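Write out the 3D structure for:
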Amino acid sequence: MITLSDIREAREAISGRIHRTPLLSFRALGRQAGFDCHIKAEQLQKTGSFKVRGALNKVRRLTAAEKARGLIAVSAGNHAQGVAYAAAAEGAACTVVMPEAAPRSKVEASRGYGAQIVQRGTLSDAFVLGEELCREHGYTFVHPYDDPDVIAGQGTLGLELLEELPDLDAIVVGVGGGGLVTGIAAAVKAIRPAVRVIGVEPEGAACLTAALRENRVVPLDRVETIADGLAAATAGENVLEIARTLVDDVVLVSDEEIARGLAFLLERGKLLVEPAGAAGIAAILAGKLHLPAGSRVVTVASGGNIDLTRLREILPH
């Protein structure tokens, strides 16, 4: 389990290397849902998503020998950028394996941070290739979510939320592999156990829901969602261990609901996010949260890396 001291140590280590992203009131959403709604605008974070928090915390803890061997990551995009950025900051070479359908903007951004990019098939195919390259070249693997140091880094966001809104009632977080929701849960539950932590998964990529139902990691046979940032085929062992005790609920949203959430945030909140960053908004708008009226709710806009062409395809017409 990730401890509060792990997360506080991570925060001290990465302080000054990341942005303190704003927490914004979202009254239009609150009126729709009957809650007091706020958004943590993490799409304004360095590299355009929360992923840089965990990447920086992981890479700074590596030995000189591990850094010298070079780093490798597997990602649909945001983790790729976070690791590439962290590797460059530590003077380490970085290879990133991405699926062929990864958004062009995320591929180019990762390359811009100095990573060598290799693309292969689906995300599952990319993981297989990443493991092969890791064995062949002796690279140091930086897992996108199922790593204690990565989870602790993501948990720093939970500390910020409690400082910015001490009397919050619930935090709503999009779930891919589960590193963000479990990191936030580990931080928040250690300080304010009554705060509800609610994960949101796409219906077509519900790996944490499957793992919690079966009480074991369950690889999905198929992953299909517009939210590439949430398109994990499996949760991890560390994620499951934390989620089963600290995450209060995981709800599912459709791609249509995600698209409506993205459009609502853009039109009414004047904030542009990628589909993964709109998952929490989608769940609130769709009435998926079982909370008392007037609850003070924060949702995390986890990332904003989206191609404009893809945005036009996703927005409801």
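The chain has two domains: 4-49+147-314, 52-141.
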